[in-house]
Design a protein that fits this description.
The strands form 3 sheets. Strands 6-7-9-10-11-12-13-14 form an 8-stranded mixed barrel, surrounded by 4 helices. The chain has a 3-stranded antiparallel β-sheet with strand order 3-4-5, with no helix packed on it. About 25% of the residues are buried. It is of the alpha/beta class. The N and C termini lie far apart (about 175 Å). It has 2 domains: about 35 residues; about 220 residues, Alpha-Beta Barrel (TIM Barrel). The protein is rod-shaped, with a radius of gyration of 61 Å. It is built from 9 helices and 14 strands.
Amino acid sequence: MRLPDEREEREGLTPSIVSAIVIVVSFVLLLLAFVLFLNSDMLDGGNKTLPVASSQADSDDGYPDTKELIGDSNASPEDFDFWDLYPEPTATPKPTEAPKATVEVLAPSEDGKHTKILNRDGEEEWVLISPYLPKHEYDFTMLVCQSDRMKYYVDSKQISYVGIDVSEDEEYIDFNKVKKDGINFVMVRAGARGYGSGQLILDEYFTENVKRASDAGLDVGVYFFSQAINEAEAEEEANLVIQNLQGFDIEYPVAMIMDYVDNDTARIERVASKADKTTITKKFLETIKAAGYLPMLYGDKEWLVAEIDMSRLTEYDVWLSQHQDIPDYPYQFTMWQYSDTGMVDGISGYTNMNISFIDYSEK
C-alpha cells in the first residue's frame, strides 16, 4: 500500500518534460526574432524615393516645345478650326411628285355618255348609254330636208327612201297620187288590240290599202298596235297579221308597236316589269319571223330606252319614232318616223312621214 507523499512525487514534472518545454519556448523566441527582422527591413525599403525624371529628359525624347511650333505666327485658335473643310452632308432630296392631273367631271348633259329621255310624269332624266348595244353610224350633216321630205346622202348620192304610214284614220287614199308625189314606200296598219277591252281588231282599210298601194307601185310593209299582256296574246296578235297577209307580196317589214295611250289607262300598264314587256315583244317578233316575214320593232326613244331591254332584241330592226329635226337616239335604227304633220298629195289632212336608210325591197 502506497503512502500519499509517494504518489505526488511520482505524478509531478519529470526531467524529460521540462526539457521539452525549454526547447519549444526557445524555438518560438527565435521565430519571433526572425519575423521582427524581416519587418524592419521592409519598412526601410518603402521609405526610399524614386528619382524624378527631369524636363531635360523630356526634351531629349524628340518632341518640340509648343512655343517652337508657334514661333512668330499671328494665327489665332480660330485659324486652326479645320472642321469647315468637311461640309455637313445634306439630306438626299426626295423625288418631286408630279402634280396630280385634275379630272374634270362633266355633267351628264355634256359628257357624251348619257342621253336624255322624258318620263311619263314629265320629268327629264339622263340615262347612261349602254356600251354593249350597237350604235348607229349616221352622219346627220348628210341629212337634207327638201319640201318637208327627209333625205340622206352619201358622197352626194341619195341612199334613203321616203315613206308614210297610214291607217283607217286617213280613210280613202289615192295611192297613184301618193306615188307621183315622191313617196317610195308605205307602212299600212293591219290591226290592233283594244287597249281597254283587249279585243283583236282588223283595220277597216287594211286589205284595200295593201292592194291599191301595191298596184300603184309602192313598196308595202305593215304594222300592228299591240296591247298584249303575255306571250300567248302576243302570238295571237302575230298570227292575226300573218293570216291576213296571205296572197300579198310584202317588201317592207312587219312591225310591232306597243305603247301607252294618252289620257287613258292601257292594258299593258298591268305589265310592270321591263323584262316581261321584252319577253312579250320578243314572242311577237319571233312568230312573224317564223312565218317568213321580216320583223321590226317600232317605238319612241323613251319606250326603247326605258320600257324594254334592247340587249335582248338586237337581232331585230328598229323603226324609231322621234318627231324632231335630228334624232338623238344613240342605238341602231333603220327607219325613222320624223313627223306627224306631213302633207302628201292623195291624202286628206296630215300624215306621218318616214325615212328608211335601207331599201327593204332588195333584202
